[in-house]
Design a protein that fits this description.
heterodimer, A: alpha/beta, Peroxisomal Thiolase, Chain A, domain 1, 9-stranded mixed beta sheet, two-stranded antiparallel ribbon, globular, B: mainly beta, 5-stranded mixed beta barrel, 4-stranded antiparallel beta sheet, 10 strands
């Protein structure tokens, strides 16, 4: 694989705490993941020069200072530290910040950690009376939960491209089949189309098994300069070739969580690239490769239907062709371009600040050829993409 | 004792009579905002004109729709007798904007289709509070 831009960083180590509903502190999950990643990298905690935390807003005050929280748990070492919140893209932004420090030559090696302990049921806005907060308002005025938005996108796909409920179920069946081989996944049982059909409708056309759960979990990555990796004996580490975290372009004509309306395109025509595809395009450009070079993709399947949108957004097929790609088996393990070999959110549930980091853990295991029964044969390059609230999203490309 | 008349659940986002959404329009570039944007025009190519209040079209076409089968968490207000409700995203051609809203009470998703025309109505959201909703035509 060419390392085109000369700006790659090395993935020295990855680690995860299994996803589940463990009912313990997010610090514990992050700590376990961090220790695994450091072991995997062959480093001691005190070797780490920079800690980047992906914040959780669900754990009270410590959650807002995640970098320092994990640094304290590992033992204050005087490392440089940062924390960031970017909804579902928090982990990607934390990796982006750490990568920039490395590429700027300010540090050689960084630890990135994200972890969450999620509440049961629907995600709810931060409490109190908050009429200036759009996330609070959408619940107060509309009762618009996250699945309501996912269902609007799903119905639109049905109307526009002829997607069916069977297609949506087939995404779940595929991802469950992948996830059963992943020891870090929360759900590891096979799921049949009949199981999906028998689960209750949450927001028509989506059923409970079409929608990702909310989970506890933690993930960590150790990044370094390629030179540092070499000095530490990592001769051919997996490399990160791109991390894109661009904003939407005005006017954003996609209905985003938690908004009440799109931007108006009265004065300016919609952008050539909608938000999700803009992040993928920025990452492809940065890494100097394209969708045809990919061996696998990890996409943010908040719902089964959304996975189909992603196929098009990241250029695996043209708009309207995702169902065909799925039905042909191209996106299943053994197919032309396996999507979510980890099992995806369908098998994990979402642990928000950990999820984008977990995607990079999967890319790393796949590109090392160490993904066991879910290994994509001959994996050389992969993309991980993500989208969250408030105009946050990311695309990350890793390669051998 | 007489109940006080129900009030809009949010100030300045819609009028009750006639039922219309209240947006703002940039006097320089013409971009329309809903909810009403009062701080600054968000078009990066616009030097920023005044934002003036403008009522939005009361009719549009259903871009997509769904329903909520389970009680949402607070601050949504619902009693013991939670009633599922439909939600629609309606595209207003004149403003080239898509606006979310609950669908009028008594209308189920069986009555809806993408592309169907819908009009704005104002209904009770919870006791004492009014909100805008979409009703198919």
């Amino acid at each position: 694989m060419n390392h085109g831009n000369g700006r790659d960083v090395a993935v020295l180590g990855v680690g995860m705490h299994p996803w589940g509903k463990w009912g313990r502190s997010f610090v514990e999950y992050g700590l376990a993941a961090a220790r695994d990643a450091l072991d995997d990298a062959g480093l001691a905690w005190t070797d780490v020069q920079y800690v980047a935390g992906a914040d959780t807003i669900r754990n009270g005050y410590p959650g807002f200072v995640a970098g320092a929280t994990f640094a304290q748990a590992l033992g204050w070492s005087g490392a440089r530290v940062s924390s960031c919140y970017a909804a579902c893209a928090s982990g990607a932004q934390a990796m982006s910040v750490a990568r920039a420090q490395i590429l700027a030559g300010l540090v050689d090696v960084a630890l990135i950690v994200g972890a969450d302990a999620a509440p049961k049921g629907f995600f709810a806005p931060v409490g109190g009376d908050r009429p200036d907060d759009p996330d609070w308002l959408r619940f107060r005025l509309l009762g618009a939960t996250n699945p309501v938005y996912f269902a609007l996108y799903a119905r639109r796909r049905m109307a526009l491209y002829g997607a069916t409920r069977d297609d949506f179920a087939a995404v779940k069946v595929k991802n469950a089949r992948h996830g059963r081989h992943n020891p870090y996944a929360r759900y590891r049982a096979e799921v049949t189309a009949a199981d999906v059909a028998a689960s209750p409708v949450v927001a028509d056309p989506l059923r409970l098994l079409d929608i990702c759960a909310t989970s506890d979990g933690g993930a960590a990555v150790v990044l370094s300069s390629v030179e540092y990796a070499r000095r530490r004996g990592h001769d051919a580490p997996v490399r990160i070739g791109a991390i894109a975290t661009v904003t939407p372009t005005f006017p954003n004509t996609a209905l985003e969580l938690p908004d009440f309306a799109t931007d108006s395109s009265l004065a300016v025509d919609p952008p050539e690239r909608p938000f999700r595809s803009a992040n993928a395009a920025a990452a492809y450009e940065e890494a100097g490769l394209g969708p045809e070079d990919l061996s696998l993709a990890e996409v943010y399947d908040l719902s089964t239907a959304l996975e189909l949108d992603w196929y098009e957004d990241i250029g695996l097929c043209k708009p309207g062709e995702a169902e065909e790609l799925l039905r042909d088996g191209a996106t299943a393990l053994g197919g032309r371009i396996p999507v979510n070999p980890s099992g995806g959110l369908a098998s994990f549930g979402e642990a928000i600040p950990a999820q984008a980091i977990a995607q990079v853990c999967e890319l790393t295991w796949q590109l090392r050829g160490r993904a066991g029964a879910r290994q994509v044969e001959g994996a050389r390059a992969g993309i991980a993409v993500n989208q969250g609230l408030f105009g946050h999203g990311s695309a990350i490309i890793a390669r051998t | 004792m007489a109940q006080p008349a129900p009030e809009p659940v949010v100030d300045g986002w819609f009028t009750v009579d006639p039922p219309r959404l209240t947006g703002t329009r940039c006097t320089a570039c013409g971009t329309v905002y809903f909810p009403p944007q009062t701080l600054t025009c968000r078009n990066p190519a616009c030097d920023g004109g005044d934002l003036v209040i403008t009522p939005l079209s009361s009719r549009g076409r259903i871009w997509s729709y769904t329903d909520a089968r389970y009680r949402p968490p607070p601050p949504y207000v619902s009693g013991e007798d939670f009633e599922p409700y439909a939600v629609a995203a309606v595209e207003l051609p004149a403003e080239r904007i898509i606006v979310l809203g609950q669908v009028a009470r008594g209308v189920s998703i069986e009555d809806l289709a993408v592309g169907m025309e819908a009009e704005l109505v104002v209904e009770e959201l919870d006791p004492g509070h009014l909100v805008w909703k979409w009703r198919p035509l």
